[in-house]
Write the structure tokens for this entry.
Amino acid sequence: MKSARLLLFPLLLSVSFLQGQDTEKTNVPPDPFGGLEVEEKAPDFTMEVDRTRGTFTLDAKDGTYLPGSHFANWHWNMKLERWGHYYAGLIYDSARPKLGVQLKVGEEGILKSYAPRTNSLSNEEPLILGALFLEEGEHPVMLLTGDQSNVPAFQVKGIHFRPAPESEPLGQSIDGTIHLEAKTATTYAKEMRYEPKPEKNCLGYWKHKEDWAEWVFDVSDPGEFDLTLHYGCGKGNEGSKVAVLLNDKTIEFSVEDTGGFQSWRELKLGKVALDVKGENKLAIVPLDKKGAAVMDVQKVVLNPVK
């Protein structure tokens, strides 16, 4: 009996070891994205903003279509009330793999691209062809396509324009400072715009309180910053209330007379925290307008707190 027990003991150990191995085995392959961290995103504004302001569409039904066996084209006549940079986008439906398109707006420039096949489940946004600087006034607009573009296989619905910045923000500098120049703002506006004259170099023509500006910028070294607005306002136009939106933070102030619209004053708006690396957003949104114009804005500066 004793020898039988001795033989049974190693057998039990072997079974236990094999069972332990089986519990670690699985037919499910390892998660290829298991090691990735969820990218943190800066919070949205607490105030609702209108990103459709300043946008417009040239509808296909308002244009003239000329078919062709190899090339077809559309013509519109566009009247623009505000100069500035605009993103031009094609609104269309296509069952073809891709079709060459070329957009020409007056003498301002030509944008070329390929229009890929569309999907009815994800065809809400225009195909951005590029950005153009457009002067105010009338512009002939022509869209050239590589084949017929008014047939079931490829239908042009219109050309969409939305405000674009003059240039992209530079991002955070090596000393931690963030400069948001006027020319790097997107102006969602009917009249307010970037004024490029050297003595101005600012956001001006702020005649409607519904017009607003936004900067989208990159933060490489998060932390605490001193927020400063550089603005000007002429006598008799002071008193407008304005909100500065920085991600989910809202700071309100009243515009004061600085001695002139290009007499710049540095308004310190306090300390703010930028906690997220990557994309952040800042907007200037008028809450009301007391005079002929809200103000002119030269820049916004975020200086790191030492």
Remarks:
- Residues 1-18 have pLDDT under 50 and may be disordered.
